[in-house]
Design a protein that fits this description.
There is one protein chain. By secondary structure, the chain is α/β, with parallel strands linked by helices. The chain contains 23 helices and 16 strands. The relative contact order is 0.05. It comes from Breznakia pachnodae.
């Protein structure tokens, strides 16, 4: 909980007014901070706290209780890591020097907390050749500019990953560079030059340019090397693109002393992914004319394999076209042994293990198709393509059907919903009605928002809102949306586990010396229980030979081609051993062998994400290693997956 609400809670516990001096001593903050915090609380709930000659006291105790309860939920996970990102962004990007008190005020914590945070940061930054210094109470970071920018890219990469590929969420890091503005400028130049670029490459490029603009603001300009096309082996066409980009950005940001050479360096990675824009690409019948038969045939193999093995349908025209051109360039780079740099923004292997596993599968298909190994760097960029497509699919699946019940006039209902949906994701408005009786297909409605009183006879989640929306209304709707999504997710998980996990296929602490012994044992049990035939083991071994299915200390063996030819009924066999066994590259404690019929393949992503997310949590993993029976195992997986997702 931030210090504002701690102060509110402290005042609530007192029956007499509390002086500013007592609050300053208790919370180790300045008098100015106390005044600011009280003002912010009164803005949030008018006349909540009275200021008298005797001190501060709560005027509306019921309102105080509501705010304290909400703050407890909202800030229960607001810790050092989140503060660290904000502190670093301020010290790396802000032109104005900040004091510890300035940071404390912004983060609603005490100055003592900031001092402790800075002590931790000093040790972390030393490894990056950066150092925190203090002079006249002002804090700043010193180090080489290239080290600062590299660290900043890592920082923003983490933020981007947390926001699930949403770059606009990191705009608050920038004071000079406007991400949307730069994005628009680059899109216009791409169109003028008849270039096309996939969304993730574009956002990555825009992020590079934004950092360049931000960090060069009013910095002394070094002697600029005369930029020549030959320096980077760019085509004349792309050279013109770089020059135009430099000139347009200089017009908008004249006080930023970046150079043409720096723009060229930022464009190196993007140059491997840009392609000529041609509207005929939209016609899949013409695609082979542009990418060739080899790429076209390989795309067909990839599309079919992703559906057969993971239940993922990528038969999307826009995706296929963009992916095909990326694949064409990828094959050229691999054959010519051109290694593209692995930029920090693409290091998403640990944050999106399922996406990376799929990308790794695609890389194996490409390697087989062209008889040449695909480097891990290229696999990372394949992950980005998949992330874009699957994020769109996920959003459509998770939409919450919403009906607005109110006396609608002058399009007020639509305006209210726009205001709500601009701050809360996943809501999909299906209707606006004037009474509960007018709601059609009530069984298909997930949430009712109403300016009328809640109707207890209607068995659907409801939230009462006012026609003039308040912050409290938004909070109430957000909490209900999160409740519905969590409930939906828990029910889906429960059904998957009931359907696929069997008590007689749960094994612990049986000693094995290597992976093939475990595979043979689990396959034999699946055969004995009539889930698979004797040929099933060959499918498993063939997959492990081509692409090992291990991830950290977890292995998820399954057939490479899930056509169901050797599977009689879907099931998952589980093996757990506190003493890890060498798989291919890693030592594993957990093995989940999947035998899924084609109709159950779409469950694969959920099973993978559940297992990996739970076992990545060290405390939970240790508890599961101690499991000796199936019921405890299931309970630990389900309960801890719920906790991790909520966090």
């Amino acid at each position: 909980m931030d210090v504002r609400y701690e102060i509110l809670q402290f005042l609530y516990s007192k029956t007499l007014p509390v002086t500013s001096t007592i609050l300053q001593d208790t919370f180790k903050v300045s008098r100015r901070s106390i005044i600011n915090y009280i003002s912010q609380l009164n803005n949030e709930s008018p006349n909540l706290i009275l200021s008298t000659s005797r001190g501060y006291e709560i005027a509306k105790r019921e309102d105080a209780v509501i705010l304290i309860e909400q703050a407890s939920k909202q800030f229960s996970h607001y810790g050092y890591e989140k503060r660290k990102r904000i502190i670093l962004s301020r010290l790396l990007l802000d032109k104005e020097l900040l004091s510890a008190q300035d940071l404390a005020d912004e983060l609603y914590v005490s100055e003592l907390t900031i001092t402790k945070d800075l002590a931790k940061l000093r040790n972390e930054l030393k490894q990056r050749k950066l150092f925190i210094r203090t002079k006249n109470e002002q804090i700043f970071i010193v180090g080489k500019e290239k080290d600062r920018q590299k660290f900043l890219m890592d920082l923003l990469s983490e933020e981007w990953q947390v926001s699930q590929f949403n770059v606009s969420s990191i705009q608050h890091f920038f004071k000079i560079a406007n991400i949307n503005e730069i994005n628009t400028i680059i899109k216009i130049i791409l169109e003028e030059e008849n270039f096309d670029l996939d969304d993730f490459s574009l956002l990555n490029y825009v992020l590079h340019l934004s950092i360049l603009i931000e960090t060069s603001f009013k910095n002394p300009q070094s002697a600029e090397h005369i930029f020549e096309k030959s320096d980077y082996e760019f085509s004349t066409h792309f050279y013109r693109f770089i020059v135009t980009t430099y000139e347009r950005l200089k017009e908008v940001y004249p006080d930023c002393n970046f150079t043409q050479e720096q723009i060229a360096e930022a464009s190196l990675l993007m140059s491997t992914r840009v392609m000529p824009a041609d509207k005929q690409w939209a016609d899949l019948q013409n695609l082979e004319n542009y990418v060739g038969s080899e790429v076209n045939d390989l795309m067909s193999v990839i599309i079919r394999s992703l559906y057969d093995n993971f239940g993922i349908n990528v038969n999307n025209e826009d995706f296929i076209v963009r992916f095909a051109f990326h694949l064409k360039n990828l094959i050229l780079r691999v054959r010519d042994k051109i290694m593209i740099p692995l930029n920090p923004i693409t290091e998403i292997k640990d944050d999106y293990p399922f996406l990376y596993m799929i990308a790794n599968h695609i890389s194996s298909l490409i390697s087989t198709g062209i008889d040449c190994k695909v480097p891990d760097n290229e696999t990372m960029y394949l992950t980005l393509h998949l992330g874009a497509l699957l994020a769109d699919e996920k959003n459509s699946i998770e939409n919450i059907s919403c009906v607005l019940v109110m006396y609608d006039y002058l399009n007020l209902g639509n305006r209210i919903f726009e205001q709500i949906s601009s701050q809360i994701n996943y809501l999909h408005l299906t209707d606006i009605v004037s009474s509960y009786e007018d709601i059609k297909n009530i069984e298909e409605v997930d949430l009712i928002l109403s300016t009328l009183s809640v109707n207890p006879s209607v068995d659907v989640s409801q939230v009462q809102i006012s026609q003039l929306l308040t912050k409290q209304d938004i909070r109430n709707v957000a909490e209900k949306v999160e409740f519905i999504r969590n409930k939906r997710e828990k029910e889906k998980i429960r059904q998957i586990f009931i359907q696929l996990f069997e008590k007689d296929l749960f094994f612990t602490d049986i000693p094995f010396s290597e992976s093939n012994e475990i595979i043979s044992f689990l396959c034999e049990k699946l055969v004995d229980m009539n889930y698979v035939d004797k040929e099933f083991i060959n499918d498993i071994l063939e997959h492990e030979k081509i692409t090992p299915t291990e991830y950290n200390n977890v292995a998820i063996p399954h057939p490479l081609l899930s056509d169901g030819s050797h599977i009689k009924s879907s099931a998952i066999a589980v093996y757990i051993n506190r003493n890890p066994v060498t798989w291919i590259n890693n030592k594993v404690n957990f093995v989940f062998m999947l035998a899924l019929l084609p109709k159950d393949i779409p469950l694969f992503p959920d099973v993978f994400n559940i297992v990996v997310s739970v076992l990545n949590d060290k405390k939970t993993s240790e508890k599961i290693l101690d499991c000796i029976n199936y019921d405890d195992f299931i309970e630990l997986i389900l309960s801890n997956y719920e906790i991790i997702n909520i966090m």
